[in-house]
Write a structure and sequence with these properties.
Helices cover 37% and strands 20% of the residues. With 286 residues, the protein is of the alpha/beta class. The strands form three sheets. The chain has a six-stranded parallel beta sheet with strand order 1-4-3-2-5-6, with helices on both faces. Strands 8-10-11 form a three-stranded antiparallel beta sheet. The chain has a two-stranded antiparallel ribbon with strand order 7-9.
Length: 286
């Protein structure tokens, strides 16, 4: 396995692979890898085959964090990440630094961003202004550097995947986007690098996100329910956990992300909850 730090080196290698007809699978991450990330690596490997190359990027992207968010304390453990990637059969880890990805950013000389203006407005976009501008910008840059045939994202970040798909379609990126299922702990909590922030009591209460999804599923089995009523039910459930605070819950069309007034099986649900000081997200099709 090769570790590459410089964007130019990554792009030259990817161009060489292209010339040789080698398929490239790509998994962008912010590191602190867990089984969910490794499942994306497996999907990428199946997509490109044994003769293809799988690239994992490890980069905590500063432009997708807002003021007061957890950029500085976001968990990092590159040696462990490299070991996991090696064991998973990754061919290249691309781990750039801020200066190489955003030259001149602290001095105000970096001023080019990619913005999706429709799907990114609601939910995470409303709760974290500027977040998706950072996501689309860094993913566009990574696509230009890694030149993947296939890129794999996790369904846990459903809105992010939808925004990336729209960007790829609108800007004619020659890459196929695959969205792999959310990987969960035995008690239902979606795997996330931010779970590391939780103390034991908070970890127990964090299952409320999955319990809310299960509650909504159970409610709509008997027929369509008003979204307003289900939002109230979810809010009451979250409020029953002392350390939990609901940020938002939405019911929407899986493809368009448009909110729906009536919720039925097949409607998508997403929510964000603060557990202590840790903000967690989850989603699922009901």
């Amino acid at each position: 396995m090769r570790v590459i730090r410089q964007p130019g080196v990554m792009q030259r290698l990817a161009r060489r692979w292209q010339r040789e007809g080698v398929r490239i699978g790509f998994v962008p991450t912010m590191g602190y890898l867990h089984e969910g990330h490794l499942s994306l690596v497996q999907v990428a490997r199946r997509a490109v085959g044994r003769s293809g190359r799988v690239v994992v990027s490890i980069y905590v992207n500063p432009t997708q964090f807002g003021p007061g968010e957890d950029l500085d304390r976001y968990p990092r453990d590159l040696p462990r990440d490299l070991r996991l990637c090696r064991e998973a059969g990754v061919d290249v880890v691309f781990a750039p630094d801020d200066q190489s990805m955003y030259p001149g950013l602290p001095e105000g000389r970096y001023s080019t961003y990619v913005v999706e203006e429709q799907l990114s407005r609601s939910m995470e976009g409303a709760a974290r202004p500027g977040h998706f501008r950072g996501v689309t910008t860094v993913v566009a840059k990574l696509f230009h550097l890694v030149l993947p045939d296939v890129a794999v994202f996790g369904a846990k970040d459903w809105q992010q995947a939808a925004v990336i798909r729209r960007m790829v379609d609108n800007l004619n990126f020659p890459v196929r986007i695959l969205v792999a299922p959310t990987v969960r702990e035995p008690d239902g909590l979606a795997m996330s690098s931010r779970n590391a922030y939780l103390n034991p009591d908070e970890r127990r209460q964090a299952t409320v996100l999955f319990e809310a999804i299960q509650l909504a599923r159970q409610k709509v089995r008997s027929g369509p329910k008003p979204a307003r009523q289900l939002k109230q039910d979810v809010a009451r459930l979250v409020a029953s956990r002392p350390r939990a605070r609901l940020d938002y819950v939405e019911f929407f069309d899986s493809d368009t992300l448009e909110p729906v007034p009536q919720v039925r099986p097949g409607t998508h649900m997403a929510l964000a909850v603060f557990v202590g000081n840790t903000r967690l997200i989850d989603n699922a099709k009901l």
